[in-house]
Write a structure and sequence with these properties.
It is a single chain. With 68 residues, the chain is mainly alpha-helical. The chain has one domain (1-26, 35-60). It has helices at 2-25, 37-60. 0% of the residues are buried.
Length: 68
């Protein structure tokens, strides 16, 4: 039982050391994941909504013609 406990503690210590070393070498604490198709659709619809809002604001001001 004592050997198993010592082995477990040694394993945990080595994993902690490895994590500390990897954090020093890499600034990213996480792995960047690709966007799913639903997230891409959400982003596209949000951008479209913003464009529509800007267009409507420009339409409310007939003196200015720029829509940017």
């Amino acid at each position: 039982m004592a050997n198993q406990l010592e082995s477990l503690v040694a394993t945990i210590k080595s994993k902690v050391r490895a994590l500390k070393k990897s954090k020093k070498s890499s600034n990213k604490p996480y792995i960047k994941m690709d966007k799913s198709s639903s997230i891409k659709v959400e982003i596209r619809s949000r951008k479209a909504r913003q464009l529509i809002d800007r267009t409507l604001e420009a339409a409310d001001r007939p003196g200015k013609r720029t829509v940017s």
